Structure formats: structure tokens, C-alpha cells
Amino acid sequence: MPSETLTVTDNRTGKTYELPISDGTIRATDLRQIRISPDDFGLMSYDPAFMNTASCRSAITFIDGDQGILEYRGYPIEQLAEQSNFLEVAYLLIYGELPTKEQFETFRYHITHHTFVHENIKEFMRGFRHDAHPMGMLLGTVGALSTFYPDAKLINDARSREIQTHRLIAKVPTISAFCYRHSLGLPYVYPDNDLSYTGNFLSMMFKMTEAKYQPNPVLEKALDVFFILHADHEQNAGTNAVRAIGSTEVDPYSAVAGGIGALYGPLHGGANEAVLRMLREIGSVDRVPDFIKGVKNGERLLMGFGHRVYKNYDPRARAIKKAADSVFEVTGVNPLLKIGLELERIALEDDYFIKRKLYPNVDFFSGLIYEAMGLPAEIFTVLFAIPRTAGWLAQWLEMTADPEQKIARPRQVYTGQRRRDYIPVSQRG
Ligand code: SDX
What we know:
Strand content: 5-15%
Number of domains: 2
CATH superfamily of the largest domain: Citrate Synthase, domain 1
Shape: globular
Structural class: mainly alpha
Order of helices and strands: EEEEEHHHHHHHHHHHHHHHHH
CATH class of the largest domain: Mainly Alpha
Helix content: 40-55%
Oligomer: single chain
Bound molecules: s-citryldethia Coenzyme A
């Protein structure tokens, strides 16, 4: 039986070391014993952008990038999108099992009854410029929520962790809708507890003078599916930020605000907004070949394509593309769809993209559908942050319970100068 070890010979000293292998990894700290002298610090691993480093053990989301597989707590994303609903998936991510009827109703009651925000939040948001980007408003306001719930600092208290988890899942849609209404100069719409999670969000976004907003059931369902597809994605940049910030034992509002900041970036969740801008810039199908030429020359990125983990079609992109038809039946087909499909067709046939294993990711089609639903591009990444809040919280809870985790503090390879004596300004040339 081959031993689960790695034999390493340090050719600088001729010494050999046996490093245990577990779950396909070696512990980076096991490298520290490899020294050239007793006072040597020992070897470190060097992995900029964490291309090949596991930062934690997690049981929440499984991805097989080569096979294009995504499972939440072992359930295939395709089945959850088809048969579940977002709140049930949020429960699954957080508690690890699908809820019984009673468990779901209790969870839904808690979420529904935490949707209001303190009235001062409205005053706080009034300070944003009329053209403030909704992600910047969401980032700032979710961070500010921590000042309304000082009990959230009790991160070692299970009940406090659970209440903050409910509050964040419930209030992020409310704040998100407020961001949208602020950008249009419209009055805020308060939550309607009679509606579903996505129905209530649509009401807070679009209700005008009608006594009670009636969400379009097709759009309500499509948005619920999109929320399921965006809920978690293991150790992506946003989750890594939430875990690193949460590892300092700060409250979860501050940690989630950090995740929102990471998601805001165009290489991450901001890509759905960037895709729409790219399609608008291309403008017509006959200009696609020129754009692709620019991408292959390294002048542009094909936004919505590529992924650090998926080297196959992102299963979420496939599911979103499938759900698009039901939305377009209600809203009419987005004229930019033709350009998107032509980009996809060329990219899937072109050696440049095939060689680099670049496929459409979750952000490629979502923006087209959101725009067809009447949502402005600036709000697309906010629509990513709402469901991802459930995933971030599941990851934060898992981290707080993990005895192996402690404050995240990477090392570095120092490349700067050493031991220079101070030079008085009169002698600097
Ligand atoms: C999300 O991590 C997650 O799980 C994220 C996410 C989640 O659910 O949390 O899935 C959500 O962020 C999806 C990704 C959204 N971003 C985009 O669509 C932006 C465009 N994509 C790229 O920026 C890029 O593909 C990344 C950032 C997504 C991944 O980058 P990597 O893994 O660091 O890959 P890389 O930059 O090293 O690229 C490898 C090669 C390079 O070419 P060469 O230097 O080898 O010649 O592929 C090229 C890159 O230039 N490349 C692209 C490209 N993406 C990679 N070329 C053109 N267009 C692209 N989109």
C-alpha cells in the first residue's frame, strides 16, 4: 500500500523529509522543517493569487471545474434550480440539510420579520450622491448596519450569530432596493410580508402608486432561480474576503461588507455589468469579429468568459441561459442577445479560447436577462450580492466553528532593501 507521504530531498543539504499527504494536500507549515541551518526560518510556499492553495476545509459547496459540476451540500445545482426555492437553498447552505416543512416555515418567518431596516438607514443613504453606484451604496450601508446591532460583536454566541444571519439575509434585499430607488429619486418602498422573498424584492424595487404590488409570477420565479444559482461558490474572491475579515472576530456585517467590496470588482461579480457594457459597445453582430480580434490581441477581455476553477461550461451559465426563455416570453427578447450568442458561438469554436479553456461563466447571460426585466446595469452586481449574502454567511459560520481557523495572516517574500541609515533631507539629492 503506497504511503500517503511526499518524500522531499533538499539538494542544498542532501537531507530528506517525509511530508504527510491528506486530502490531496500537504500542510504548508510542514515545509518549515526544511532548513539550511538551525537559525534558518525554513521553507514557505509561495502562491500569489492562491492559484494552488487550499485556505480551509469546507463542506458547503463542491465544484469540479473540469466536469462543470456544482453542488450545494451535495445537491446538484440543476436539481435545486428546478425543484427548490432560494430561501430553502439559503437554509440548506447555512444549516447543512434541506429543512422539514416546520423548519422552513420557521426560517421563512424569521427572514420575513427582519426585512425592515432602522429608519436612520434612510437618513444615512440620503447622503449618497444621486448618481452613486448602487454597489458603493450597498457596501457602505451594510457596513453601517454593524453600528445598529452592537450585539453582533458577540460572534462566539450561537444565538447572536443566528440572529445576525437572519437579519442580513432579510435586510440586504431591502437596502438593495433602497439603493435602486435612491438612484431614481423615488421614495423607498417598505417590505410587504405577504410576498415571497423575490416577490417582496420586486415590490420594493418597482411598486409605484398601486395599493399593493403584484409581482409577475414568471419574473418572480426566474429571479428566485437566479438567486439560487448565485448563492455560493466555495472560496471565490468575495468569500475569501469575508473569511479573512471574519477571522479577526469582527461582526458579520463588517465581514459581509468586505465581501461586497470584492464582488464589486469587474473581474468578479462586477462582470455582469461589464458584459452588458461590452455588448452595447460592440453594438451589432457584424462587429463581433473585430471585437474578438481585439481580445485575441490581448487588448480586451471577453467579459463573462473564463473562470479560475471552471475549465468547462459554467453550469450556472447553462441554467441561466435556459431560464432566459421564460423571461423573454414576458419581456421580449433583449436585442443584445444576438450579439451575445454570436460571441459565444465564435469563442466556443476559436482555438484562442479553446486552448485557454475559456467558456461562458455565470455573468455572461445574467445581465441580458436583468436588462430585459427593466433593471439598469448598475444594479446587476447588487443582484449578485443579495443571494451571495447567504453563501457568505454559511462560510462565515463554518469558519467561526472551525477549530483549525485563526486570524488570517499570510507571510511574504521580502524584495525590498535592508538596513539603510536615515539621510537628513539636506543631504538627499
Ligand atoms: C465570477 O471564483 C469564482 O467562483 C467567481 C464566481 C463566483 O460565483 O463567485 O464564479 C463569479 O467572478 C465569475 C468570473 C466573472 N469575471 C469575468 O467574466 C471577467 C473576465 N474573466 C477574466 O477576468 C478571468 O477569466 C477570470 C478573472 C475570471 C479568471 O482569471 P484567472 O483564473 O486568473 O485566469 P487568467 O487571467 O490567468 O487567464 C488565463 C489566460 C490568460 O491568457 P494568457 O496570459 O495565458 O495568454 O486566459 C486569458 C488570460 O489573458 N483570459 C482571457 C479571459 N479570461 C482569461 N482572455 C480573454 N477574455 C477573458 N475573459
